């Protein structure tokens, strides 16, 4: 497994137990061509996966990429030599549709959309889906929405239940059965530089993510079986 942190906040980096403040190279250097992947790669001892880390340097990538050739495809070309080395490559995107996110969408085969079941999140969802589809049409024909993941879910409140019903109506099987609840242990884990499954694998949040992982694998196996039938 390879985790790529494309968010300048570097939360995935810190949550993997890697200090973003002490990086010699990061994904920023890879994108602008100052180093190759092997120089920037880190290993998450807690998580057991490889990591392409990020830090605040990545904020400069937005401007730098605009001046480069093939600016939307920098990540895809950087990953091309190593894609087959991994079962899964996960890209953590920034929360806005900028050039970093576009690079992720051009490099990816599928998109998982995490969202809170709240009014403003629902309002922005259709725009996000349209943007993903547009990028797929123009730059990455293989790109598809794998699924929608409900996060920070609190069943004691009526709005998430109503929002879930709307999502199910509009997206059908694209809505994951797994739901990530609001959970203190999930919130605590990053401050200790640990994935939630390492920090407290018995917590409700960790169990929910395990359920999601199982659902992802089952869906992929079913899709592969259908494709070869």
What's the architecture, going by CATH? 3-Layer(aba) Sandwich
Strand content: 15-25%
Rounded radius of gyration (Å) = 18 Å
Mean residue pLDDT: 92
CATH topology description: Rossmann fold
Give a short summary of the structure.
By secondary structure, the chain is of the alpha/beta class. The chain has eleven helices and seven strands.
What would you say this structure looks like, in words?
This protein has 229 residues and is of the alpha/beta class. The chain has one domain (2-228): Rossmann fold (3-Layer(aba) Sandwich). Helices cover 45% and strands 17% of the residues. The chain has helices at 11-15, 27-31, 37-40, 61-66, 74-79, 99-107, 119-139, 158-171, 184-188, 196-199, 204-228, and strands spanning 2-5, 42-44, 49-52, 89-92, 110-116, 144-153, 175-181. The strands form two sheets. The chain has a four-stranded mixed beta sheet. A three-stranded parallel beta sheet has the order 5-6-7. Strand 2 (42-44) and strand 3 form a beta hairpin. It is globular, with a radius of gyration of 18 Å. The two termini are 28 Å apart.
Descriptive keywords:
three-stranded parallel beta sheet, Rossmann fold, 7 strands, alpha/beta, single chain, four-stranded mixed beta sheet
């Amino acid at each position: 497994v390879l985790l790529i942190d494309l968010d300048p906040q570097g939360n995935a980096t810190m949550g993997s137990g890697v200090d973003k403040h002490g990086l010699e190279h990061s994904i920023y250097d890879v994108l602008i061509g100052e180093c190759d992947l092997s120089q920037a790669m880190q290993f998450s001892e807690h998580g057991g996966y490889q990591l392409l880390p990020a830090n605040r340097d990545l904020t400069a990538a937005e401007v730098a990429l605009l001046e480069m050739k093939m600016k939307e495809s920098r990540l895809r070309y950087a990953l091309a030599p190593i894609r087959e080395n991994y079962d899964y490559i996960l890209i953590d995107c920034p929360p806005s549709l900028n050039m970093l996110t576009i690079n992720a969408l051009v490099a990816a085969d599928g998109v998982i959309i995490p969202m809170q079941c709240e009014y403003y999140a629902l309002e922005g969802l259709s725009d996000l889906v349209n943007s993903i589809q547009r990028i797929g049409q123009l730059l990455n024909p293989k790109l598809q929405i794998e699924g929608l993941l409900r996060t920070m879910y609190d069943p004691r409140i009526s709005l998430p239940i109503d929002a879930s019903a709307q999502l199910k109506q509009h997206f059908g099987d694209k809505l994951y059965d797994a739901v990530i609840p609001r959970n203190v242990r999930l919130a605590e884990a990053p401050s200790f530089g640990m994935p939630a499954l390492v920090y407290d694998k018995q917590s409700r949040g960790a169990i929910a993510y395990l359920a999601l992982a199982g659902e992802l694998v089952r869906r992929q196996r079913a899709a592969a079986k259908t494709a070869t039938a």
